[in-house]
């Protein structure tokens, strides 16, 4: 079994408009944009990162905004909901705030004994805020979101699968433990994680497959401390029969990717070196940062990419 994984690192989704996306995460949810770069594999598209002050692994929501992209159709074989942790008693604030910003899909409920407020992102993205007993992760504050209400980081990600079996086995191999079930949902949690410790799997045997587009989660990444741990995880996954990519340098972390049995794309990302490697902490996310291999494209990209106003 693998014991190097420490919870979620980031969640990456797709959007149809960079400005709307940036406004939603910073002005509505009060998170910090910690990096403005491009999709390294398609540099004419932004890659935007939001999180806490420094983009601590476990707090980082990232987006590829493809201008005008059509919406995805939810279904099985994908992550349907990304869930953020807030303090106990913070949900009434959020209910009122999200409604005042015109956020759609607001729905209060309870899941595994925790109060939850579901809502939709600008492209119909599935989100929820959940109240947790204690969360020592320091939240980013601003835009009239105070320390009591602010988002601490991820609580969980939930997947919808036709058959949870093989993916559940994989999570257990990755160090997760099945801790509870509620209706069609099985909850997995990791001990000694970074706070973003939970994965839920909902089994829907006869639901249609998801058709990915704007508002869909592209992949979820799990955190490992460093490159040595990542290589150990890579070897262990390959020994188990998974096809895993070579290690890819993403400038702010190193990444490996593999497709899970249920169809969801998983990544393992390192906590090192972090988002402050090429910008002062005070100015994270302000300038357009390009990886070395695309720096020669800067003049074209600065003309092509619509500026994001803060
Ligand atoms: Zn990623």
Please give a structural write-up.
The protein is an alpha+beta fold and 310 residues long. It has one domain (8-304): 2,3-Dihydroxybiphenyl 1,2-Dioxygenase, domain 1, CATH 3.10.180.10. It has helices at 18-28, 91-100, 165-173, 227-239, 298-304, and strands spanning 5-15, 32-39, 42-51, 60-65, 78-87, 107-111, 114-120, 126-132, 153-161, 176-182, 185-190, 198-203, 217-224, 248-249, 253-259, 265-273. The chain has an 8-stranded mixed beta sheet with strand order 2-3-4-1-13-16-15-14. The longest helix has 13 residues, at 227-239. The termini are far apart. The structure holds zinc ion. The site of zinc ion has 6 residues, from β1 and β13.
List keywords for this structure.
310 residues, alpha+beta, 2,3-Dihydroxybiphenyl 1,2-Dioxygenase, domain 1, eight-stranded mixed beta sheet, 16 strands, 16% helix, 38% strand, binds zinc ion
Write the SSE topology.
Elements: E1 5-15, H1 18-28, E2 32-39, E3 42-51, E4 60-65, E5 78-87, H2 91-100, E6 107-111, E7 114-120, E8 126-132, E9 153-161, H3 165-173, E10 176-182, E11 185-190, E12 198-203, E13 217-224, H4 227-239, E14 248-249, E15 253-259, E16 265-273, H5 298-304
Parallel strand pairs: 1-4, 5-8, 9-12, 13-16
Antiparallel strand pairs: 1-13, 2-3, 3-4, 5-9, 6-7, 7-8, 10-11, 11-12, 14-15, 15-16
């Amino acid at each position: 079994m693998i014991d190097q994984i420490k919870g979620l690192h980031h969640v990456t989704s797709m959007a149809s408009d960079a400005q709307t996306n940036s406004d939603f995460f910073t002005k509505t949810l009060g998170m910090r944009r910690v990096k403005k770069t491009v999709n390294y594999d398609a540099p004419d598209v932004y890659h935007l990162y939001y999180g806490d002050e420094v983009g601590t692994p476990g707090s980082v929501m990232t987006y590829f905004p493809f201008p005008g992209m059509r919406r995805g159709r939810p279904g099985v074989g994908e992550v349907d909901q990304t869930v953020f942790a807030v303090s106990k008693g913070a949900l009434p604030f959020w209910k009122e705030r999200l409604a005042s910003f015109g956020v759609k899909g607001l729905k209060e409920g309870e899941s595994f004994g925790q109060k939850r407020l579901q809502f939709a992102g600008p492209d119909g993205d599935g989100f929820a805020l959940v109240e947790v007993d204690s969360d020592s992760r320091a939240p980013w504050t601003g835009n009239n979101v105070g320390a009591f209400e602010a988002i601490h980081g991820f609580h969980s990600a939930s997947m919808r699968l036709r058959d949870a079996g093989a993916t559940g086995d994989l999570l257990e191999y990755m160090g997760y433990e099945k801790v509870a079930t509620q209706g069609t949902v099985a909850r997995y949690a990791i001990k000694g994680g970074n706070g973003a410790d939970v994965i839920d799997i909902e089994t829907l045997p006869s639901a249609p497959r998801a058709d990915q587009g704007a508002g869909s989660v592209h992949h979820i990444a799990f955190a490992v401390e460093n490159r040595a741990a990542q290589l150990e995880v890579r070897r262990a996954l390959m020994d188990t029969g998974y096809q895993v990519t070579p290690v890819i340098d993403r400038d702010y972390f190193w990444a490996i990717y593999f497709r899970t049995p249920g169809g969801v794309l998983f990544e393992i990302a390192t906590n090192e070196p972090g988002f402050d490697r090429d910008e002062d902490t005070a100015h994270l996310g302000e300038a357009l940062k390009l990886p070395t291999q695309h720096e020669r494209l800067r003049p074209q990209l600065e003309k092509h990419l619509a500026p994001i106003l803060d």
